[in-house]
Structures are given as C-alpha cells and as structure tokens.
From TrEMBL:
Role, per record: Catalyzes the isomerization of ribose 1,5-bisphosphate (R15P) to ribulose 1,5-bisphosphate (RuBP).
Record-listed substrate binding positions: R23, G24, A25, A26, R71, N215, K216, K241
GO function term, MF aspect, one: ribose 1,5-bisphosphate isomerase activity
Catalytic activity, as annotated: alpha-D-ribose 1,5-bisphosphate = D-ribulose 1,5-bisphosphate
EC numbers: 5.3.1.29
Protein's name in the database: Ribose 1,5-bisphosphate isomerase
Active site: residue positions: C136, D205
Source organism phylogeny: Archaea, Methanobacteriati, Methanobacteriota, Stenosarchaea group, Halobacteria
Additional record remark: Reaction proceeds via a cis-phosphoenolate intermediate.
NCBIfam families linked to this entry: eIF-2B_rel, ribulose_e2b2
UniProt KW Isomerase keyword: yes
C-alpha cells in the first residue's frame, strides 16, 4: 500500500490542533470530522485515489492517523475519527466519498445537538441567583450556564484564569456576552472565592470507566477544595468524551506541553538548571465529582461505566490502523 500524504486541509487542521489554535475537546472533534470530509473530497478529486477504492480508503486512514497524532488526551478526537471511518462504505470512490462526507456532517450535527441537550440538563442544577465558578474554557460547561440564563435565571460567575494558557479569558468574554456578571480571578484565589460560590462547573477532555474526570490541569485541586467547602461540582461532558479504551484497563495519556507556555525564555535563562514541567490535564477521582452531565441526562460518576458500555461496547476499534 503506498504512503499517502494527507490533503492540505488535513495537514492544516492537524497543525492548528497541535498548536491549540483549534482547542477544546468538542471543537477539536468537529474540526477533525470536517477535515476527514475535506480529505474525502480531495482524494476523490484526482490522482490514484480518485479511481482506486483501496487507495481512497488508505488515504482516509492516513489522514485520520495524522489527526490522531496531534494531541493525546481528549478522546473526542479519536471518537470523531472512529465515528466517520466506521461509516465509510461503498465499492467505488464516489460512494466512499459520499459516505464519509455524510458521516462527517451527521457527526457535527449530533455534536451540536448533544451540547444543547446537555446544556438544559446542567441548567436544571442551577437556581436563580446562583454564582458559578468555572475553570478553563469548556463549551459544554458554558452551554449549561447559558441555558440557565435562557431559562430566565440570574447567574453570576467567578472565572479562574487557568494558567498557563489563560483560557479563562475566553470563558470570561463568552459569559459577559451572555449577560452574566463575571469576576476574573487567578487560579490560586479559587479556594478563597469558593465561599461565595454555589456551584463549580467544569468540562472534560476524557472520562474514564471508573468515573475519573480528565480535564484541564487544576481541576482536581479545585474539586477537592469544593468538596471541603461543601460546594457541589459538576462536569459537563457530551458522551463523545467517554473514553472506551478505559473499559479494558487502559489509562488516559496526560499531555505534557512545552515549558515555554510556563516560563518565557529570558526568565528561563535566568533560573538556569531547574526542571520545568507542564502537564496540560489532571484526573479528578470520581469521589470528588458530584455529577457528570451529558446529553443523556446526569450520572453519578461511578455509574458512567454503564453508559460507556452501552455506547461503545467493550473495546475501541482503531479503523485508522494500517492494514
Ligand atoms: O469540549 P469542551 O467542553 O469545549 O472543552 C473541554 C475541555 O477541553 C479543554 O482542553 P484544551 O483547552 O483543548 O487543552 C479544557 O480542558 C476543557 O475543559
């Protein structure tokens, strides 16, 4: 089987995911599904892949591998690739192309619907007059707060800036646009402000079979503090965040990012011989999380395995693997 260089839009999307120009687990998933549709169009358009179904399929698998290799932690990415590639079918290139483009469109529509549905579920947990605390920027978490506002509830927010990349700024802007009064704080002020907060709402990049929540670094400390203060904490996560490989004992790889996100080169030079580490995510044990809110309703973290089995079976196929 010849090596296939993915089409330009796939390489561009992969680069944007790796550099976090495209970021957030749900956004990464829809960008990856759309990139596969672009690959299908390009592969059907010319060259050996346009007339050879086997070459077309191989080019789709190669594109999926390129996208898969960008970032390791958010399972929404491989789940998106699986969804599209498992629906690739047909004996000729035209049918194959159509099946990929249709599956990609269906995936993205499903993603949007799921976010709307989970938003309503999460909103039901919030009461009029509540103050919520957020961590990082999660479109699933925002959907819950925005749905509560749409239900006519008055909600305020304490937004953690979320070092090192300060995605909290994106959350602050989004909430401000939704008419939510926002107080932006540094991460280390979170415990102090928990006394003024009714709910903590976070997203997830992956959810493990034991109910462990893998989310932006700092989530686990926030959850432990919230429990100590008696503030309920929920994770808003569409079911594409469920990590099927954890059903068979695999752990979720935590992405380690570059030290330049933590410290600028000049300060680094001055500090000299010390190690700098930059894990992007951590794991919150299920006992510190009150609920996982999905488009299928809310679940105690320990029971999420039942939903995972129902949706993903016992394993996780890798339809992008080389034959
Ligand atoms: O899918 P949605 O809810 O938008 O985001 C889920 C999570 O993805 C983000 O990761 P990163 O910023 O890509 O590292 C954050 O950890 C956020 O909580």
């Amino acid at each position: 089987m010849p090596e296939h260089e993915p089409a330009v839009p796939v390489r561009e999307t992969a680069e944007e995911i790796a550099t976090m120009e495209i970021r957030g687990a749900a956004t990464i998933a829809s960008a990856a599904a759309e990139a596969l549709a672009e690959q299908a169009r390009a592969a059907a358009d010319g060259g050996p892949t346009a007339s050879d179904p086997a070459a077309f399929r191989a080019s789709m698998r190669a594109a999926a591998r390129t996208l898969r290799e960008t970032r390791p932690t958010a399972v929404s990415l491989p789940n998106a690739l699986r969804y599209v590639l498992q629906r690739m079918e047909g004996d000729d290139v035209d049918r194959l192309r159509r099946s990929v483009v249709d599956a990609s469109g269906a995936f993205v529509r499903q993603l949007d619907r799921a976010q709307e549905d989970l938003g309503r579920v999460g909103a039901n947990r919030l009461a009029d007059g509540d103050t919520v605390m957020t961590h990082c920027h999660s479109t699933d978490a925002l959907a819950c707060i925005e749905a509560a506002v749409d239900q006519g509830k008055s909600i305020s927010a304490v937004v953690k800036e979320t070092r090192p990349r300060q995605q909290g700024h994106i959350t602050a802007e989004a909430l401000r646009d939704a008419g939510v009064p926002v107080t932006l704080i540094v991460d280390s002020a979170a415990r102090r402000y928990l006394d003024e907060v009714d709910h903590v709402v976070v997203g997830a990049d992956s959810i493990a079979a034991d109910g462990g929540v893998i989310n932006k670094i700092g989530t686990s400390g926030l959850a432990v503090n919230a429990r100590e203060r008696g503030v309920p904490i929920m994770t808003a996560a569409q079911t594409i965040k469920l990590h099927p490989e954890t059903l068979t004992g695999h752990t979720v790889e935590i992405e380690m990012r570059d030290e330049t996100e933590v410290i600028d080169p000049e300060a680094r030079e001055e500090i000299g011989e010390v190690a700098v580490e930059n894990p992007a995510f951590d794991v919150t044990p299920p006992r510190y999380m009150d609920a996982i809110v999905t488009e299928q309703g809310q679940f105690p973290p320990e029971s999420i395995v039942t939903l995972m089995r129902e949706l993903f079976g016992e394993g996780a196929a890798e339809p992008w693997a080389e034959p």
